[in-house]
Amino acid sequence: MSRYLTLSALAVLFLFPLVWSGWASLEEPSNYLEMARFGEGVGTYATNSVLVSAMTVAGTLAVSALGGYGFARFDFPGKNLLFLVTLAILMVPYATILIPLYVLLGYLGLQNSLVGLSLVFVMFQLPFALFMMRNAFEALPRELEEAALVDGCGTFRAFSKILLRAVRPALVTVGLFAFLASWNDFFAPLILLNDGSSFTLPVAVVSMTQHTFGAIDYGMLQAGVMVMAIPCLILFIVLQRHYVRGFMSGALRG
Amino acid sequence: MTLTTARTRRAARATPPARWRGRKLQGWLYAAPTAVIVGVLFVAPLVLVVWMSLNRWPLLGQATFNAPANYLKIADNPLFVDAVLFTLKYTAITTVLLSAVALGLALLVQERRPGIAFFRTAFFLPGAVGFAAAGLLFYGMLNNDFGPIDPMLRALGVTSEPVKWIGTPNMALFSTIALVLWRFAGFNMLILLTGLQAIPTEVYEAARSDGANRLQIFTKITLPLLRPTLALMLILSVTGSLLAFDQFFVFTNGGPDNSTVSMVMVVYRDAFFRFDLGGAAALSVVLLVALVGLNTLMMRRLR
Questions:
Q1: Of A155, A184, B6, B149, which sits with the fewest C-beta atoms within 10 Å of its C-beta?
Q2: Surface of A (105-164) touching B: CB under 8 A
Q3: What's the rounded Cα separation, in Å, for the pair B44 and B271?
Q4: Contact flag A228-B108 (C-beta cutoff 8 Å)
Q5: Other CB atoms within 10 Å distance of the CB of residue B274
Q6: d(Cα B137, Cα B129) in Å, to the nearest integer?
Q7: Complex confidence, ipTM
Q8: A224 in contact with B at a CB cutoff of 8 Å?
Q9: Do A149 and B143 lie within an 8 Å CB cutoff?
């Protein structure tokens, strides 16, 4: 019983800030109207965030599913090297390669571009995603693929028509991690985007507190926090099982 | 079992069926998107950051070779030297507290009991919120006039003055650590839970039937068997803390008086306030080498 008392007290401590923020944002309904008009309009920032997350999730799923299948079922020269270099992304601190990425995206004509930002997110997701997808394809019985190949399908048809459906749980996990990372990240868009109209939500809402000479509108700020947090909270609660599988897979260990 | 699969695999390789011809090429095609992304967006920037660090590289305009000037001036950068000391202090405190809290939470929720899923979710939920959003949430919550914490403390008679949550260097550090604990404790709890659940229940039962008490079970069984998972959590926490940026940028903005400027914040300021990308690249290279070295060392030592 005392265990449940401790647990409940802790749960209050962990949930209180979220409940308070939601309540503070709603205390004056005008908070959301003010926020909607902030800067370029919250619609612009939310659209940017949705676009970046959608491109990151789609890109990560496509690249890691193709790669995972390739790594699980084929032998080719350089295979081990490519896998090791991809996993090395986990070893290299994220913050230290953003400055050269800023310059590099400039060479590619992708500076201040949502596409460029999404590609960078896909790269950061790849070690985890490729590891997950390779293991998922390796776990499939070879007969599944053999049957399709005997029927005269090419490997790509077997991959797209049969195998992809069989690894759907892993795809959900990879997609969820990619969404949470790209929707929430602050540092990469801060560095890679420099025009207000291309800001994603985190950069735009943080800018409500900076460079303001007048008073900060705290109610509006909490409305911004809620707009960022609610999609993640809902997705996490609905897909929790898939999130935990990402932890169990050992992929975090690199 | 293993032998037969190895043998069949070798047999398959010896006489590749007609439909498998060109499998090398196909393998390459499937891996090509990975190779392009990793090559262009990971390997190339790694090379570029080293090259940039050897040049005077203004934000706008032509780069000129000036090695090793960018490295030599690091020692003369008082902001960076202070930032190193501050970041190390922050990392030490955060890692100790975060490990302790995460371990406590994991032990509390490790057994399947009625309602335990709710508590696991409750402790993890802050981790689903973005770090920048979490920073802004605390920024409001700890505001003297707008937030609820000051009025509560006054009502309880703890204080009658407004609390300087981010007004003094020590309080700013304390408040930031509170934010980090709230945001990351559940994440680390989840990592530890994967380790705890890998310990077979028979081991506990055997210890209990041998008459071991709770403390003995914890120190003699749980901790040693949890060691690899604890090591992973420690490595993630140390690396994450050494690279701290969001919490200080969003929540304390480096203040008061630059007392909470982290190492990565100096890199950012050099690049985008002093327009010195070469200097920022040199700092990045130093951080990169130090962290990869530290990671390797910790993995060898702790595992």
A1: B6
A2: 108, 119-120, 122-123, 126, 130, 149, 155
A3: 19
A4: no
A5: 13
A6: 10
A7: 0.94
A8: yes
A9: no
The residues, any chain, with a CB within 8 Å of residue A112's CB and separated by 6 or more, are: A192, A193, A194, A195, A198
**Alpha-helix runs per DSSP H in B75-222:** 78-109, 116-128, 131-141, 149-155, 169-197, 201-209, 214-217
| Optimal mutation site among A3, A6, A14, interface B, most CBs of chain B within 10 A | A14
Question: Rounded distance, CA B221 to CA B213, Å?
Answer: 11
The CATH number of domain A44-205+214-253, selected from 3.40.50.170, 1.10.3720.10, 3.20.20.70, 3.10.20.310? 1.10.3720.10
Instruction: Indicate yes or no: CB of B46 within 8 angstroms of CB of A97.
Output: yes
Q: Inspect the interface and report whether the beta carbons of A70 and B27 lie closer than 8 Å.
A: yes
**Per-residue pLDDT tens digits for B257-302:** 999 999 999 999 999 989 999 999 999 999 999 999 998 999 888 7
From A186's Cα to the closest Cα of chain B, the distance in A is 6
User: Which residue shows structure tokens 């409305």?
Assistant: A223
| Distance between CA atoms of residues B72 and B83, nearest Å | 17
Q: Does residue B68 have a cis bond before it (omega within 30 degrees)?
A: yes
Q: How far is A129 from chain B (nearest CA, A)?
A: 11
Decide if A20 and B141 are in contact by the 8 Å CB cutoff.
Answer: yes
Q: What are the E-state strand segments in chain A?
A: none
Do B190 and A15 lie within an 8 Å CB cutoff? Answer: no
Instruction: Determine, for residues B243 and A74 on separate chains, whether the beta-carbon distance falls below 8 Å.
Output: no
Q: What tens digit of pLDDT does each residue of B178-219 get? A: 999 999 999 999 999 999 988 888 998 899 899 989 899 999
Domain ranges of chain A: 44-205+214-253
Q: Are B237 and B188 in contact (CB under 8 A)?
A: yes
Least Cα separation, residue B86 to chain A (angstroms): 18
Helices and strands (DSSP H and E) totals, chain A: 13, 0
Residue A25 near residue A219 (C-beta atoms within 8 A): yes
Of B19, B128, B272, the CB nearest to A236: B128
Cβ partners under 8 Å of residue A156, min gap 6: none
Which helix (H) or strand (E) segment is B56 a member of?
strand B55-56
**pTM of this structure:** 0.93
CATH topology of domain B72-302: MetI-like fold (1.10.3720)
Q: How many CA atoms lie within 13 A of A192 on its CB side?
A: 29
